[in-house]
Design a protein that fits this description.
Elements (H helix, E strand, L loop, with lengths): L1 H26 L1 H6 L3 H10 L1 H28 L1 H8 L7 H5 L5 E6 L2 E2 L4 E5 L2 E6 L7 E6 L8 E5 L9 E6 L8 E5 L4 E9 L3 E9 L7 E9 L5 E2 L2 E2 L6 H16 L4 E3 L11 E10 L2 E12 L2 E4 L27 H7 L8 H6 L8 E6 L4 E9 L5 E6 L5 E6 L4 E6 L3
Antiparallel strand pairs: 1-2, 1-11, 3-4, 4-5, 5-7, 6-9, 7-8, 9-10, 10-11, 12-13, 14-15, 15-16, 16-17, 18-19, 18-22, 19-20, 20-21
């Protein structure tokens, strides 16, 4: 509906402008040609208002559905409005490949937080505002080493044991050094990040620290998983990073020894920006370790090895050996269901976060007034209240709608 209103409004505006130009040509050839330019159009409207008012009225009428359409769109899809008004769609694909998309709402230390840098490397997730040595604001979460692929983490305030450590940093304009706080428990964290080729993670992010930290963030984030950057699907060799140098060195050694069995070790510390450098590379070529001194230079096309004239590797087609597979015998329903007991670590917060997981299960709610409601959980109503259906002894049933604020204890009575 909103798209139709916006389109209809634009059509009315365009129709009014075309009508105005036609009227201008009817007044005179010079007026018609001149109305193709906005300043002359305004002059024509002022000088010939009696002729132009109907066309102007038609264009003005088009703004009504246009404004209504954008208002409806902003109500149910504010992210699309933000994308339209930011004019990101005008940027080239090459530039967008190197940018991250953040739709994060909330505050850090009581101030709005709009990260510009995001990464997940060496088991640490970082959201950062500022490219200088000290960030204006920063959140880092030490998740530990994770296998490649999706990253999913859920932590509640009552969780104990090994949970990720949160660190927040901020620096106000009057400060010369940043302040930092570390939080090891008592917070809420939800991560659901999915891999986005070639080197990104994207998904939901939700973090709420204890109240005295004045930090609550929620929304959608994107993260780089390494320090490579891509342009039109290819590695951007102009980007200054150790990963770029390692990529160039590996490609050089593969072509030099005509083999793809090349492994690059950790590179020594390098300083950017630099037009050239001698890079000591510890590498294994077909299992044989060697040390190579590579003369690296950054030209118009990016980083390269000086005097590299080796031809590209020939494309090889690898054949995968056939592996015998056996089909596992499915477990009985009773054995499969015994593995999943949703009563473990059950809480009101978990139910509110994922109500579909607990629908049609038997629950018992204790209210502040001392009342008890027991029955099947139907879900959440429009106001966010818990809907519990209880069968009566006689014919019929009762439905309890309880606000989460009124519930002091919630029990799950079946797995």
């Amino acid at each position: 509906m909103d798209a139709l209103l916006i389109l209809g409004g634009l059509l009315l505006i365009v129709a009014g402008l075309v009508w105005l130009i036609v009227l201008a040509f009817g007044t005179g050839l010079l007026w018609g040609v001149g109305c193709l330019l906005p300043p002359v159009t305004l002059l024509y409207i002022a000088r010939h208002w009696n002729n132009a008012r109907k066309a102007v009225g038609l264009s003005a009428l088009g703004f009504i559905p246009l404004v209504v359409g954008f208002t409806l769109l902003a109500n149910h899809d504010p992210e699309r409005i933000a994308a339209i008004t930011s004019l990101e769609w005008l940027e080239s694909d090459e530039k967008q490949d190197q940018q991250l998309s953040f739709r994060l709402h909330g505050q850090l230390d009581g101030r709005p937080f709009e990260p510009r840098v995001g990464s997940f490397t060496d088991g640490v997730l970082i959201l950062r505002d500022g490219d200088q040595l000290f960030a204006q604001q920063e959140v880092s979460i030490r998740l530990g080493e994770k296998p490649p692929g999706a990253v999913q983490v859920d932590v509640l305030p009552e969780d104990t044991g090994a949970v990720p450590e949160i660190e927040i940093n901020w620096m106000r304009p009057e400060q010369q050094l940043p302040e930092a706080r570390r939080v090891r428990s008592g917070y809420t964290l939800h991560l659901d990040l999915q891999p986005v080729p070639p080197n990104k993670l994207a998904g939901d992010f939700h973090l709420v620290l204890p109240a005295h930290y004045h930090t609550s963030l929620s929304g959608h984030i994107e993260l780089f998983t390494d320090n490579l950057r891509y342009r039109s699907g290819q590695v951007d060799l102009t980007h200054d990073s150790a990963d770029t140098l390692a990529y160039v060195a590996k490609d050089h050694l593969q072509r030099r020894f005509e083999t793809r069995a090349v492994t690059i070790g950790a590179l020594p510390a390098v300083t950017f920006p630099a037009p050239s450098m001698i890079l000591s590379v510890q590498a294994e070529v077909e299992g044989s370790p060697s040390l190579f001194e590579l003369n690296m230079h950054k030209g118009d096309q990016g980083w390269e090895v000086v005097d590299d004239t080796y031809p590209p590797l020939k494309a090889t087609v690898e054949t995968q050996p056939k592996v015998a597979t056996t089909q596992a015998t499915p477990l009985p329903d009773s054995a499969a269901s015994a593995r999943i007991d949703r009563r473990q670590r059950f809480s009101l917060a978990r139910l509110l976060r994922n109500p579909e997981r607990y629908e049609h299960l038997q629950i018992r709610a204790h209210t502040k007034r001392g009342g008890v409601a027991e029955g099947r959980f139907k879900g959440l109503d429009r106001d966010g209240n818990l809907s519990i259906r209880q069968r009566l002894k006689g014919p019929g049933e009762a439905v309890f709608n309880l606000s989460p604020d009124d519930i002091v204890r919630l029990e799950l009575l079946e797995p």
